[in-house]
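Researcher: Last one for today. Full complex below.
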Amino acid sequence: MSASPPDTTRDERSGAEQLPVPLLLVGAAMAVAAVVLAVVEGPHDLAQATINGLVSGAYFALGAAGLTLVYGVLKLVNFAHGEFLTFGAYMAIVGRSAFGFPLALALPFAFVTTALLALAIEMVMWRPMRRKGAGVMQLLLMALGLAFVIRNVIQLIAGTDVRQLGANVTSSVTFHGLHIGRTELWVVILAFAVLVALATMLSRTRLGMHIRALSDNPELAATTGLDTDRIIVYTWVLAGGLAGLAGVVYGASIGVITPNLGFGIVLSIFAAVIVGGIGDPYGALAGGILIGLVQEWSTLVVPVNLKVAVGFGAMILVLILRPQGIFGHARSAG
Amino acid sequence: MTTAITFHAFAGADFWIGVGVLAATYGIFSLGLQLNVGTTGITNFGQAGFMAIGAYTMGILVVKDGWSWWWAMPAAIAASMVAAILVGLPSLRLRADYFAITTLAFSEIVRYLTDNTRSLTNGSQGLLGYSGGWVTLSVRFGGWLNDHGVHVTNFLFPLLLVSWALLIALALLVAAVVRTPWGRVLRAIREDEDAARALGKNTLAYKLQSLALSAALAAIAGFVLALNLTLLVPDEFDPVFTIFGFVIVILGGLGSYFGVLVGSVVLMTLLEGTRYVELPLAADKVAAIRFIIVGAVLILLMAFRPQGIFGKKQEMLLGE
Amino acid sequence: MSDAILEVERVEKRFGGVRAVDGASFGIERGSITALIGPNGAGKSTLFDIVSGFERAGGGAIRLDGRSIYHLPAYAIARRGLVRTFQLTKTLNVMTVLDNMLLAAPGHPGERLGGWLVRPFAARRREREARTHALELLETFDLSGHAGEYAGTLSGGQRKLLELARALMLSPRLVLLDEPLAGVNLTLGRRLLEHIEEMRTRDGTTVLFVEHDMEVVMNHSDRVIVMAQGRVIAEGSAQEVRKNETVVEAYLGKVVVG
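Model: Here's the assembly. Have a good evening.
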């Protein structure tokens, strides 16, 4: 009897290394939608909407990356994540006005300060609650309370006046009649670069491997002697930093910064995370772009004010049909 | 420069009547949340959306379709319940945080729709004109009270009495229903849904029923809100109110319906009271302080006394 | 098999790249006590989950008393007479012992929304019947003294007894016990086994249990089914199975792959 036994250890490969069927299906569906829209509304409008979609997709993806990292490692949906974006944007403002940083320096400043905030919250709140054995609902509600506190402390200090990052929101780059704002172009490039760096870090560095190990199989990771507390700390630092960056980038693109900045976009970020597959950074990228495209393409057929609602509709659809998202594993939801 | 924090607003009857109506509104609203979260264990973050459907359906039927107020209300309750079933059917099998996100997204979709269907809802300009029937009744009730020696000039006083009567009646009703064998299944679902399934209970059906009843309660709360404000705007159905509801439920104690009444009075007094406290700060910053207090209360409660005022600590310890 | 109460045919289940159950087939004879054994990762728990409706199979057929229960939801399978317990005991610790039992009473008009109001006599009568039945069962399992206490205050072994007693409230035809003796001390374990035998003799209930303790398997089961790598590799009496070479190999070591 020489039949080889099937591999009884769990399939550890991350979703993107085997092009999953769901991704191809979704890609096909989007392509079909694109063709239909091009025929009905005209290819020029579609192309412009696609560009706009890629821009929003960029900051959704950046915001989603941090959220999904935290979820992967802690199995916690951080409802306060949006506030990290707001904090980052305001830190960039502080950097520029109080220290005279140019925007290029304000970005890493926002990254660092938001990372520190996330770290502080981990030490003061999340870690003690984990030690106490707090349940899902407890943590969920604490995250909500935390969101309230962060957002309103910012409002207390900075007021509700609309602020700006002083980024160039008027000039744009044009080709073939399609526009993209100069700032927005930088946003896309930056987001792409950061996400590629993140992906590289996750697959090539030891920290990245540890994070993935902890995400995929917490029990196994604990028994192999990984210092889970330290990995969690690094994850928060990364997630906070990425969110801070996302906030700056988002604030720069829309040109309007208020204490509600993060809260206004957080549900779209959730949508991106869910559509892409929670816990998977590739999912954050794919989900971000998808939600961005869905939102902007929908403006071709529904009133502009409803585009965010359409994004939510896409998320709900994914939750109904395939709750684990494009890159997720079947066990992670439901 | 002298800093003065003054509290003289607390002395007036008008203040307390206002707080009372709000407490009744969000008390009824939170009865539904208690049924969902405290008894059944489903994290319904869409309660504001159900409230919106109730309030707006009633308003639209009266103002745009000329319905009688008495018929519009049951129709609006039915609309909310149907929405609950439609939302719950596909999403109740998801885990707690996903269900929370879905219901939150639903709530926001409702708000976006009410903001963007001007012809129906008047959007942010506000829908008014539905309270005629109530105003007549209210004036007559006020006159009757006057004739019997109760001289209160605040026009909200009848609404205060009616809404509190409703709140108490509904609280008693829901608390009684939860003590039946039907409620026993809900409580089993809260602790361990798989155990209930293994014992032959169709848990999805029970969760849908819980959600639908909660939506009905949200709709009723929506009516009280609508009559209080006499004007409906989408901002009144922001998810922040669902969060207030959660604070009320937790403050009063997970599982305690009497606690909802207490929690509602406490929170509304806190929120409205701090609105009138005169601080040497700009209005938006005062508002920020109020919300910081709410957020901090939520965090501290969940950290140190998750069972709230009237919840049983044993249940929290044994449950997880 | 002469009178099979449960028939499992070529059932399959994949999780991602792993075939947890790879074409398992067996039959359970009515009124028997059968043990399901196998090394870790053999697919026993997954099979249990599939048969009881907690997992969806990816292929195959499952019949209870001749009727298909394939892809039926878990609650429907329980109502058809197949009740299971769990490896990590699922007593409702925040409810009293008696409430745990009452919860399990099937066909209760009071459990329908509004039933207590619309059919008050039928509901109250069913509640009284359930109470009597519950107290009888609690008496049999030596738990009646704890009826009014929170289930969470019972010891681990007592909770296992409660879970079993609760399952019997449904008067099941087939009971699936997932590692009933795990973490239970010797005395309580012996009592559990006695109850299992009684279930068969007194009520004709068929029992299928997953167990790792070979002594228990050898001495307390009529038949043994052995699984490894998602398939059934042997069936028979305890003696027959113990001598089977394939079984020995499955436990002692994997087949060498070239």
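The first strand of chain A starts at residue 172 and ends at 175. Residues 43-74 of chain A form the longest helix (32 residues).
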